[in-house]
Amino acid sequence: MEDENEITFRPLLDREEDYQKLHKWCQHREVYEWFEQRVLSYEEIVSKYRRKLKEKKQSLWIIQYQNKDIGLVQIYPYEEDEMKGYLSSYHNIYEYDLFIGIPSYLSKGLGKKIIPRINRKIYQEYPAKTILLRPFKRNRRAVCCYEESHFKKIGEVVSKDTLGKEEIILLLIHTK
Q1: Residue in 92, 85, 73 with CA at minimum distance from that of residue 132
Q2: 26, 36, 142, 155: which one has the fewest Cβ atoms less than 10 Å from its Cβ?
Q3: Is the dihedral of CA 82, 87, 89, 90 positive or negative?
């Protein structure tokens, strides 16, 4: 049986140590390909995450595995957009983005441990009834992990990535 404390979360803090970790993690193709689609400079990381911490529109958490910082999850309420037609029968929708930032921790089954913990955190700490994830369709590793974690595909749309390139985005739903 999994140790309940094997996967934990700590708040991302407005400090150099956390920004340096994010910067290091976001240098790896396995991260930036799905998260930003390009390598961000240290200054861009600091500016982006300091702004997010100040605005408080997202909850930013460092994912820890066996007390080691290994990734990031951003949790936020869904804001109506072009997807609302797919979501009209769902309420109190929250979304999250996550990445494991250390390549040696990828493809080890950690996502299947992390995702249920994030879902539980959202349902317990936020007024969520539904969780929406929007991965790129071509991100097979993530999509398979989400589907194995009981997310259901409700549609797909063409949208733009952070560089303006068209991508097929899957709409995946998990309900309480």
Answers
A1: 92
A2: 155
A3: negative
- Contacts of residue 133, defined as CB under 8 A and 6 or more positions apart, other chains included, come to 95, 96, 146, 151, 170, 172, 174
Q: What are phi and psi of 108, to 5 degrees?
A: -115, 5
- 7-175: CATH, from 1.10.1740.10, 3.40.630.30, 3.40.50.150, 3.40.50.300: 3.40.630.30
Helices of type H across the chain: 16-25, 29-35, 42-55, 84-87, 110-125, 140-148
Close Cβ partners of 144 (under 8 Å, ≥ 6 residues apart): none
pLDDT tens digit string along 125-143? 999 999 999 999 999 999 9
Alpha-carbon torsion, ordered 44, 18, 164, 99, to 10 deg? 170
**How many whole angstroms separate alpha carbon 12 and alpha carbon 64?**
11
CA distances, 5 to each of 8, 65, 83, 110 (Å): 6, 8, 36, 14
Alpha carbon distance 112, 144 (integer Å):
10
Q: Which helix (DSSP H) or strand (DSSP E) does residue 175 occupy?
A: strand 166-175
* Total-model pTM: 0.89
